[in-house]
């Protein structure tokens, strides 16, 4: 401006006001001066783009709004900067997106204190006959020409935040006169009507910042900034939504004549409403009870049908989505039922000893409903995870691992043990390559955990608690199953002859087995816990044998056959048949133990009841063999001992393993071709393989025993299998 202009003193004064506050969020004024030609201000150069430019670019791109978290951070930073100016008794009076510069580093700098006001100003120094500021961002008190304070900047920040989140100002009109009238008289529309994803807390913050009465707004810019921080950090905000009574009082102030007329009509209506209110209250209460009982049944039905949503495969997506669509509305009504429970408590407390049976019954029903809804929330989270897995498993196992499948297929085709078998990619599995000793292909099962890496030097698998089931592909075979007592025709030392065999182990049979998959390890506590949400194991501490391993890498035990069978079906796995188990455990041998005829050959291969267990707190009733010493009292982490020739660990010892077959003599129930399953009706099921609580005799390859399907033995775990598709 020219030095002789009538605005020159004001120009100099306003620049001096802006220079009085030093804050990184306020554009710094370095010097003010004039010469014979003009007055000038030397200020900070701020690199960046204004919030208005960001809004314009988002609008041109067809977006619904700026990123909510980013917009909230920017306005929060502007609010903190303005608070510093307010503390110095300066009100900006023209806050708008065009005056908020966003630097490349994401910082916010407030520009243009051209119409700023010192709170100590006399009116003559700050008013020129018109309200100062940009109309769309002016507070009601600015429009009315009243004295303003820091709360007028809070209003303008609220308008700027609304525009950043929605790309629309809360008040828009074709003319200036209509715009100013709307700002004075019309309540802004709840932002959630057009942008429901913004959430309740954001809507309350905006409504509080845009309250028409200054006393109902945030009283400082810092209060606004802190509530925006709470929104970002998911903490409870301090602002509260206006009640219906608050909104009505404000409307009365804006429309006094109409309010008086309506007041008279209201008096007439109150009497009629009072009569119907009692009827409506009782009706509403009855409807509420019906809804509570209905949600109780819906929640039960949803929880009962959740088990039918397995396994997590693409074929399950529609059922998972349908379950979620039905469950979400029931879960969303939980706050209503919580309030009803609180109201029932208050009602019973007021009634004291004279409690009607109906009210007691209602509270009990609400208690049951809330317990069911808690379980439903947990189940919804699990179903959501399962749905995400089902949507991605085909890509993860077949598309992303296509090269690995191609390599596995070529190696299997070249392996004479598979006799021309063609391996097809299996959904849910990822090839890990061949075992370095056995040469058999191994696969990670994605639904039970992560794929383990191989050691670069030894090619051995490296396990941790996140590791899923590792399956080994075994070739088709004509397998001999069982053992017989020595005879003249078949003396001791003959193949499949065992002096300890009993009637349930014979006679030996030959079974045609198709190629199949069986786990390299017993199922771990981590894998069971990850799937079921519980760890039933009796022994959860670190093994003395391997004190540095993860405790949850110990095998899971103490669950029933029913539990095991259900869990395997849910994971798209199976329990192996006895024939599959024994073929895999023998690994091509025909002796009582896969290590030979002598039980001492088990040293280093099996975890059994031995000298170490007897001398280290083992149970006195366990069947100890003092000639063996495996270094563990109970089970050790899977893979702690040496594997058999097929690369399988712990088939003899550690824990016994449930099989799929009924507990019946083979003479009464011959095995079927393909998988060797004994097809007969019998309520008990077989377990195989010995355990930490028994000696070598019970750990022979052919030894078999059984339990009813509902019992939960402390020494029985499982080794998952899977049929090939």
Task: Offer a few descriptive terms.
725 residues, alpha+beta, five-stranded antiparallel β-sheet, four-stranded mixed β-sheet, 19 helices, 18 strands, 10% strand
Write a brief caption for the model.
The chain has helices at 8-19, 51-60, 68-87, 123-126, 140-143, 150-166, 176-185, 199-209, 221-232, 244-254, 256-305, 317-332, 334-351, 357-399, 402-414, 525-532, 561-570, 578-586, 611-615; strands at residues 29-34, 39-43, 49-50, 90-91, 100-102, 108-110, 117-118, 429-434, 441-445, 470-474, 477-481, 509-513, 516-519, 656-662, 684-688, 704-708, 716-718, 721-722. The chain has 725 residues and is an alpha+beta fold. It has a five-stranded antiparallel beta sheet, with helices on both faces. A four-stranded mixed beta sheet has the order 16-15-14-17.
Main sheet makeup = 5 strands, antiparallel
Unreliable segments (pLDDT under 50, ≥5 consecutive)? 122-130, 275-287, 543-547
Shape: elongated
Specify Rg, calculated over alpha carbons.
39 Å
Classify the secondary structure makeup into a structural class: alpha+beta
What does this structure look like?
The protein has 725 residues and is of the alpha+beta class. The protein has helices spanning 8-19, 51-60, 68-87, 123-126, 140-143, 150-166, 176-185, 199-209, 221-232, 244-254, 256-305, 317-332, 334-351, 357-399, 402-414, 525-532, 561-570, 578-586, 611-615; strands at residues 29-34, 39-43, 49-50, 90-91, 100-102, 108-110, 117-118, 429-434, 441-445, 470-474, 477-481, 509-513, 516-519, 656-662, 684-688, 704-708, 716-718, 721-722. The strands form 6 sheets. A 5-stranded antiparallel beta sheet has the order 8-9-10-13-18, with helices on both faces. α3 runs antiparallel to α9. The protein is elongated. Residues 122-130, 275-287 and 543-547 have low confidence and may be disordered.
């Amino acid at each position: 401006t020219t030095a002789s202009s009538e605005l020159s003193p004001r120009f100099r004064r306003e620049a001096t006001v802006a220079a009085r506050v030093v804050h990184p969020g306020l554009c710094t004024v370095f010097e003010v001066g004039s010469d014979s030609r003009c007055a000038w201000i030397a200020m900070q150069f701020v690199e960046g783009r204004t919030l208005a430019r960001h809004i314009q670019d988002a609008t041109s791109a067809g977006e619904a709004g700026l990123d909510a978290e980013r917009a909230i951070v920017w306005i929060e930073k502007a609010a903190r900067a303005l608070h510093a100016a307010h503390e110095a008794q300066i009100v900006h009076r023209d806050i708008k997106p065009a005056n908020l510069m966003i630097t490349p580093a994401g910082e916010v700098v407030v520009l243009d204190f051209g119409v700023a006001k010192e709170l100590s100003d006399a009116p003559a120094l700050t008013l020129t006959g018109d309200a100062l500021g940009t109309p769309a961002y002016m507070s009601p008190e600015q429009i009315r020409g009243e004295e303003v304070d820091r709360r007028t900047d809070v209003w303008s920040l609220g308008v700027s935040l609304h525009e950043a989140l929605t790309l629309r100002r809360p008040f828009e009109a074709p003319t200036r006169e209509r715009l100013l009238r709307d700002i004075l008289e019309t309540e802004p529309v709840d932002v959630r009507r057009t942008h429901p994803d913004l959430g309740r807390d954001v809507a309350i913050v905006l409504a509080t910042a845009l309250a028409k009465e200054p006393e109902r707004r945030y009283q400082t810019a810092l209060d606004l900034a802190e509530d925006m921080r709470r929104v970002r950090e998911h903490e409870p905000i301090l602002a509260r939504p206006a009640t219906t009574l608050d909104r009505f009082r404000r409307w009365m102030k804006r429309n006094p004549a109409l309010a008086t007329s309506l007041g008279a009509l209201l008096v007439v209506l109150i009497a009629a409403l009072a009569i119907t209110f009692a009827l409506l209250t009782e009706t509403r209460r009855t409807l509420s009870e019906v809804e509570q009982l209905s949600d109780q049944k819906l929640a039960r039905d949803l929880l009962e049908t959740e088990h039918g949503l397995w396994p997590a495969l693409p074929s399950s997506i529609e059922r998972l989505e349908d379950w979620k669509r039905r469950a979400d509305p029931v879960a969303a009504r939980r706050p209503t039922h919580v309030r009803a429970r609180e109201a029932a408590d208050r009602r019973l407390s007021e009634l004291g000893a004279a409690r009607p049976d109906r009210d007691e019954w209602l509270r009990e029903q609400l208690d049951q409903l809330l317990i069911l809804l808690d379980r439903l929330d947990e189940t919804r989270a699990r179903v959501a995870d399962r749905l995400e897995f089902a949507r991605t498993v085909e890509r993860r196992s077949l598309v992303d691992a296509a090269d690995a499948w191609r390599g596995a297929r070529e190696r299997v085709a070249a392996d004479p043990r598979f006799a021309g078998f063609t391996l097809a990619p299996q959904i849910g599995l990822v090839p890990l390559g061949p075992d370095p000793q056995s040469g058999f292909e191994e696969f990670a099962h994605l639904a039970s955990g992560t794929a383990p890496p191989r050691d670069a030097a030894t090619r051995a698998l490296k396990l941790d608690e996140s590791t899923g089931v590792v399956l080994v592909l075994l070739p088709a075979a004509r397998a001999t199953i069982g053992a017989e007592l020595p005879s003249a025709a078949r003396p001791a030392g003959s193949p499949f002859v065992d002096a300890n065999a009993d009637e349930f182990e014979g006679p030996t049979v030959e079974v045609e087995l198709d190629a199949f998959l069986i786990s390299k390890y017993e199922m771990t506590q981590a894998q069971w816990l990850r799937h079921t949400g519980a760890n039933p194991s009796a022994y959860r501490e670190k093994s003395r044998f391997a004190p540095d391993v993860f405790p949850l890498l110990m095998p899971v035990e103490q669950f029933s056959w029913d539990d095991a069978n259900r869990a395997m079906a849910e994971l798209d796995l199976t329990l192996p048949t006895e024939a599959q188990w024994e073929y895999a455990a023998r690994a091509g041998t025909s002796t009582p133990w896969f290590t030979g005829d002598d039980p001492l050959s088990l040293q280093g291969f099996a975890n059994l009841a031995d000298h170490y267990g007897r001398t280290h707190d083992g149970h006195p009733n366990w069947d100890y063999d003092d000639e063996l010493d495996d270094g563990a009292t109970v089970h050790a982490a899977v893979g702690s001992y040496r594997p058999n020739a097929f690369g399988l660990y712990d088939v003899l010892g550690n824990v016994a393993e449930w099989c799929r077959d009924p507990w019946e003599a083979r003479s009464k129930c011959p095995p079927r071709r393909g998988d060797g399953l004994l097809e007969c009706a019998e309520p008990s099921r077989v377990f195989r393989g010995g355990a930490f609580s028994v000696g070598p005799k019970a750990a022979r390859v052919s030894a078999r025993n059984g339990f009813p399907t509902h019992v939960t033995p402390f020494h029985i775990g499982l080794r998952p299998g899977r049929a090939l598709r």
